[in-house]
């Protein structure tokens, strides 16, 4: 998936701003020497979810690979989506790896290292009378989203702009604490469509035994995912960037992407 010029510019500026730092300097930026606490919302498969008492998924595996290359002991911290950046700034974790888009709002609060591209799908019940193919088709519908995701603002702007101008009716936006709770609302008929990251929607539809379907033939709102560290923590950001480059160079990152290829996750450096 190709990035937009704006996303490429933002990501490039972030990487250039990180600067160089030694491993010794990076160690001083951690909450505890030799250990790294990484926050993620463990209710977001295939990126992160519980399997018995173990956290599994793309982000969990990536965090393990990165921490190994950084020579650090990894601790994954289950954190509510809306509290991920807040917890980072509050000194409760060293980093966030949780399928977070890189957005101007977030990089004002924390620094980000780009690591993957993805987008959103629109999901409906298979017996739905409406089959929205693009975001513009959501006008006049009740749409569920996870609270705090970047799509909330985008759909608000779409509703107030395009939908109103075209006389198609406002989008009734309903926010839920987690993706599974949004899914429950869709299955029960409380919303007509769900907008969520492509990997999550793909997994939900696969597990639905035909009760759900992706109505959008292509992803909407494509963006870049980022590893977030505290604002100004250039040493740790550089260490993450170097470890990620090592994974690219030795083929481990490509192998991880291939494992999750069915979920619309691609390398942010792919042309």
Task: State the main characteristics.
globular; two-stranded antiparallel sheet; 11 strands; 9-stranded mixed beta sheet; 271 residues; single chain; alpha/beta
Summarize the structure.
With 271 residues, the chain is of the alpha/beta class.
Give the secondary structure arrangement, pairings included:
Blueprint: H1 5-18, H2 23-27, E1 35-40, E2 49-51, E3 54-56, H3 58-70, E4 73-78, H4 84-89, E5 95-96, H5 104-107, E6 110-125, E7 142-146, H6 150-165, E8 172-176, H7 179-188, E9 193-197, H8 198-207, E10 212-214, E11 220-230, H9 234-250, H10 252-259
Helix pairs in contact: 3-9, 3-10
The CATH class of the largest domain is identified as: Alpha Beta
What can be said about the biggest beta sheet?
9 strands, mixed
Element-level helix/strand string: HHEEEHEHEHEEHEHEHEEHH
Give the termini separation: 8 Å
Backbone CA Rg? 19 Å
């Amino acid at each position: 998936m190709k990035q937009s010029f704006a996303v490429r510019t933002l990501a490039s500026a972030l990487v250039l701003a990180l600067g160089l730092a030694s491993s010794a300097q990076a160690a001083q930026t951690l909450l505890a020497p030799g250990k790294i606490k990484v926050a993620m919302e463990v209710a977001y498969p295939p990126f992160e979810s519980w399997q018995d008492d173990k956290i599994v998924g793309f982000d969990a595996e990536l965090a393990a690979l990165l921490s190994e290359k950084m020579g650090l002991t990894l601790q994954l911290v289950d954190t509510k989506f809306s509290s991920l950046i807040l917890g980072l700034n509050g000194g409760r974790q060293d980093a966030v790896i949780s399928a977070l888009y890189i957005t101007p709002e977030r990089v004002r609060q924390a620094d980000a290292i780009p690591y993957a591209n993805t987008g959103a799908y629109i999901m409906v019940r298979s017996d739905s009378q409406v089959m929205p193919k693009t975001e513009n088709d959501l006008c006049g519908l009740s749409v569920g989203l996870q609270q705090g995701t970047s799509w909330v603002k985008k759909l608000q702007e779409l509703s107030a702009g395009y939908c109103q101008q075209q006389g198609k009716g406002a989008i009734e936006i309903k926010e839920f604490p987690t993706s599974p709770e949004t899914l429950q609302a869709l299955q029960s008929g409380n919303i007509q469509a769900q907008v969520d990251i492509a990997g999550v929607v793909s997994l939900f539809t696969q597990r639905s035994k035909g009760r759900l379907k992706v109505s959008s033939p292509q992803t909407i709102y494509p963006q870049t995912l980022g590893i977030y560290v505290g604002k100004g923590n250039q040493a740790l950001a550089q260490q993450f960037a170097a470890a990620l480059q090592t994974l690219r160079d030795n083929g481990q990152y490509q192998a991880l992407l291939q494992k999750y290829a069915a979920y619309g996750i691609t390398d942010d450096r792919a042309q």
